[in-house]
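User:
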Amino acid sequence: MIKVGIIGATGYTGIELLRLLKFHPQVEVTCITSTSQQGEEISQVHPHFQRIYNLKLEDFNLDRIVQNTDIIFCALPHGLALERVPELLERGKKVIDLSADFRLKDPRDYSKWYQYDHPRQDLLEKSVYGLPELRRDEIKEADLVANPGCYPTSILLAMKPLLEMDLIEPDSIVVDSKSGVSGAGRGAKLPFHFTECTENFKAYRVANHQHTPEIEQELSYIAKDKVTITFTPHLVPMIRGILSTLYGNLKAGVGLEEVQEAFYNIYGEELFIRLREEPHLPETKFVYGTNFCDLGFTIDERTGRVVVISAIDNLVKGAAGQAVQNMNLLQGWSEETGLVQPVVYP
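Assistant: Predicted structure:
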C-alpha cells in the first residue's frame, strides 16, 4: 500500500480521483486539500462520498503532506500548480500534475496561450508528458508527470498510428472536437450555466484554443517533424465525454488495408484502446466513467482522406483515470490496476 495525497480535491478532477482511487487495491488516500473548504468533511462537500470516505479537507501544509504521502496528485487550476509543485519536488516527492503548467516544453508558449510567463524552464525540461501510450518508458522514471489535457488525449491517440507509420500528410490534419460541459471545470462561469448551454451547440475559441500547442508539440514528436493542425472545439449540452472527428490526406498508394494494419499493430495489445469499425463507431455513451479510448476509422475514397473517430470520458481518460494509469507506471504496477470498470448503462 502507498499513501496518496490530492491537492485540490473538490473540483471535478479531484473528486474523480477520489472515486477511482477507492477501487485501487494498493492505495490509501491520506491527505486531501482545498483552498476554500478546509475543515469540512469531504462527504459534506460531496454527499456521494458519505460512508465511502472519512476524510477532512485541509489547508495546504507542506510538512504534513510530505510526511503523510508517497505520491501526490495536483488537481489545481492552471497557474496555481506553479506555486505548489516545485516545493513538493524539492522535498523528494513524485508529483502527477493535472494542470497545463508543465506540459509545454517551450516557455514562450505559456506567454502566448496562457497569458503568463513561466518561471521554471528547468521543470519544463524535467517533466514527462503523461500519455502512457506515447511515453510509457519515460513516465516510469519520472519525478514530475504532466498529465495531458482531455482534447489532446483524444486527438493524439487517434493520430499516432497514421503519423508513426507515415500514412498521411502531416500538414493536412483537421480536427473537429465536441466536449461535455464538465470540461470547463466546477467554477461558475456564465457560458456554462444550464440556461446558456442547454438546447445549444456551439464552437468556441476557434483557432486559438490553449490546447493547440500541446497537441502540435506531441504530434510533432510522433511524426518527427513539425506538425500544424486546424483545431475547432465545440461545447455540447451533456455532462461528460469528448468525441473528436479527425481528417487527414492519405499519402499516395495508402488505402484502408494499410490504415487497418497500422491501428491494429500499434494498439492491438493496448488495454485502454478499443478499436471499433462500421457500423459500430465510437460513441461517448460507451466510454462514460471509464478509462477507455474508443477509436474508429474509415476511408473516404472520393477525397483520398482518412476519417478517425475518437471517444473518451474527459474526466477519466482525459484527466483522473490517466493520472491513475500514470501512478501505476511510476509504481511498477500493472497499468490497469483499479481502472478496469464497465460503463453505467444505459
